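Can you give me the bound-state structure? Components:
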Amino acid sequence: MITRVLITGANAGLGKETAKQLASNSEIEKIYLGCRNMEKALAAKLELEQLTGRSIFEVLIIDVSNQVSVIEAVQRLDCSVDALIMNAGGTGGKNFNKINSNGVTEIFAVNLLGHSLLAQELLKAGKLLKVAIYAGSEAARGVKEMGMKRPELPTSSEEEFASVCNGSFFKKTQDATVSYGSIKYMGALWMSAMARRYPHVKFITMSPGATTGTEGFNTLPLFKQYIMKSMMQVMLWFNKVHTVEIGAKRYLQGLYNNDLESGLFYASQKGLTGPLCDQSLLFPDLNSEQYQENAYNAIQRFL
Ligand SMILES: NC(=O)c1ccc[n+]([C@@H]2O[C@H](COP(=O)([O-])OP(=O)(O)OC[C@H]3O[C@@H](n4cnc5c(N)ncnc54)[C@H](OP(=O)(O)O)[C@@H]3O)[C@@H](O)[C@H]2O)c1
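Here's the bound-state model for the whole set.
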């Protein structure tokens, strides 16, 4: 039974909606809202309490792009959680390409490095008991509909993955959507490697699918924001993307559907919405234990 859940990036978009949906399950006793900004976190907590009529939400301040903040958050967590939803992320803000003090790009830190540290620290402290969900994305296989190519990694070596971490693989691109797909791909490989190391915990990479009504594009440059948001709106009319309620339901499937296997990456079978499938049926390289280990080892270099 899942009773306590920690969600990162819980003050907005998919994270907040997931907290709301989970609260409708009476088995859930506590939801930790992992947020980096206290003011936004308290506003989300109040809104969730009003929407759900439950007082089960507790703020846990955590900036997943900052390793000290991650370690302190794990220390502050006053008990174990059954489930961790590694949802914080996106296109990394205006300075997505900037290298931080750990030697990785901001976009890598927020989407993957911080969550790797968070999962590891929770496990080390005996504070993560049953399930870990990582927010994957169809961008990991490229999104033709949005002009995003499938990330081509010619060797998938540890060295190559390290160059994804520090951004050198992408040269000086000014387009965050270029590195985003490769980082989410690497995240899925890392989760598979974690599933082998910690067989008592279920590790599921779950794409929420192309989801409207979140703040996901708000940090892109204004013109790109306009293009992406308009495209999403048109695609919603044609049922090519879905609402935040449906996106969050996918995380809940990751938590509760026992047919989903640990170590696998689930996302839309076709396009960006609709039924899920194990993505290794479409891209067998996700099954390569060598690639999974290379991704895992590259991440360890920066922790
Ligand atoms: N929306 C989609 O179509 C889609 C599709 C596939 C995958 N995803 C993935 O789903 C996840 C959620 O996306 P979303 O669309 O719901 O985005 P969103 O509305 O922008 O929400 C992102 C959340 O992450 C938080 N966050 C960002 N950086 C953080 C940091 N350094 N430390 C802690 N929290 C941080 C944000 O907090 P602040 O308010 O403080 O910025 C916000 O609460 C992301 O990982 C995204 O890559 C989204």
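A couple of observations. The longest strand covers residues 128-135. The chain has a mean pLDDT of 95.
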